TrEMBL record:
<dbReference type="InterPro" id="IPR011055">
    <property type="entry name" value="Dup_hybrid_motif"/>
</dbReference>
<keyword id="KW-0378">Hydrolase</keyword>
<dbReference type="Pfam" id="PF01551">
    <property type="entry name" value="Peptidase_M23"/>
</dbReference>
<dbReference type="InterPro" id="IPR040487">
    <property type="entry name" value="Peptidase_M23_N"/>
</dbReference>
<protein>
    <submittedName>
        <fullName>Murein DD-endopeptidase MepM and murein hydrolase activator NlpD, contain LysM domain</fullName>
    </submittedName>
</protein>
<dbReference type="InterPro" id="IPR050570">
    <property type="entry name" value="Cell_wall_metabolism_enzyme"/>
</dbReference>
<keyword id="KW-0732">Signal</keyword>
<feature type="domain" description="Peptidase family M23 N-terminal">
    <location>
        <begin position="27"/>
        <end position="97"/>
    </location>
</feature>
<dbReference type="Pfam" id="PF18421">
    <property type="entry name" value="Peptidase_M23_N"/>
</dbReference>
<feature type="domain" description="M23ase beta-sheet core">
    <location>
        <begin position="171"/>
        <end position="265"/>
    </location>
</feature>
<feature type="signal peptide">
    <location>
        <begin position="1"/>
        <end position="18"/>
    </location>
</feature>
<dbReference type="InterPro" id="IPR016047">
    <property type="entry name" value="M23ase_b-sheet_dom"/>
</dbReference>
<dbReference type="GO" id="GO:0004222">
    <property type="term" value="F:metalloendopeptidase activity"/>
</dbReference>
Length: 274
């Protein structure tokens, strides 16, 4: 009898409907992670907001609608809510995640404690990049399981608490790949080029809009091979790996943003570590 009772208990614990592939892949509800919220099966795409920002919604397996919500690193474990237009708020639980520390030595002290002129430039560039992250196009992402943008091992993970020359700065907002200068960078999903820049910290940078607030940023490029407004197919060439901006050597820094929140890109390539 025991195994049968156990099986029954397991079945009762499952949700009323089977979780689809996207939910299993992306639902990592921790600070810096992603929450997948079930919206049921209304005929129209529900309009969802989290912390005032529009949220990506897709239809899973051609049936239920789900919201794919980016959770800021600053959120404390506990209950969070999304607003659904014309419906009740929906809650989701955020668990805890420990992020490691990293100490980095930078030779150029200006990149650790910038002077007034550089601070002005950094502020201006930050505003420009924030505006890009806040864009919300109506297109559907071509794929939510992303391809790796470069061939190369993962190096620095998302969320590391970083100390530059002993001073704590912003946590690591993306995922690094170790790759040689000149390694081609490919679009992990189809996207439109919505911003190109040569920034103080990020160096030569490309923003790709995959749709509905799902946006990639590629930094420290040696060469940008796309133009503003270009439509890049999945796997299309974006540029080449380099070490421009604040970088200790050639690598690709890749950010993924959802609802203007930078989340762990490892989730989207199936390499998330809890
Ligand atoms: Zn990085």
């Amino acid at each position: 009898m025991r195994p049968l009772i156990f099986l029954l208990a397991v079945c009762l614990a499952l949700p009323a409907h089977a979780e689809g592939f996207i939910t299993r892949l992306l639902n990592k509800p921790v600070p810096g992670g992603v929450a997948v919220v079930d919206l049921g099966n209304p005929t129209q795409a529900p309009k969802v907001r989290y912390q005032g920002k529009p949220v990506l919604t897709v239809r899973e397996d051609g049936q239920r609608w789900i919201a794919i919500v980016g959770i800021p690193l600053s959120v404390k474990p506990g209950t969070q809510q999304v607003e659904v237009e014309g419906a009740q708020r929906l809650g989701f639980q955020v668990g805890a995640k420990h992020y490691a520390e990293q100490r980095i030595t930078i030779k150029n002290q200006q990149q650790v404690t910038p002077n007034a002129e550089n601070l002005k430039r950094i502020e201006r560039e930050l505003a420009e990049q924030t505006r890009a992250y806040q864009q919300f196009s109506t297109r559907q992402p071509s794929n939510l399981l992303f391809d790796r943008p470069v061939n190369g091992p993962l190096s620095s993970p998302f969320g590391l608490r970083r100390f530059f020359n002993g001073e704590e700065r912003n946590p690591h907002s993306g995922l690094d790949f170790a790759a040689n200068r000149g390694t081609p960078i490919k679009a992990p999903a189809a996207g439109k080029v919505i911003l190109i820049g040569d920034y103080f910290f990020n160096g030569k940078t490309v923003f790709l809009d995959h749709g509905q607030g799902l946006i990639s940023m590629f930094c420290h490029l040696s060469e940008i091979d796309v133009k503003l407004g270009d439509e890049i197919p999945r796997g299309g060439h974006v540029g080449k790996v380099g070490a421009t901006g604040r970088a200790t050597g050639p690598h690709l820094h890749w950010n993924v943003s959802l609802n203007d929140v930078r989340v762990d890109p490892a989730i989207f390539i199936g390499a998330f570590k809890p």
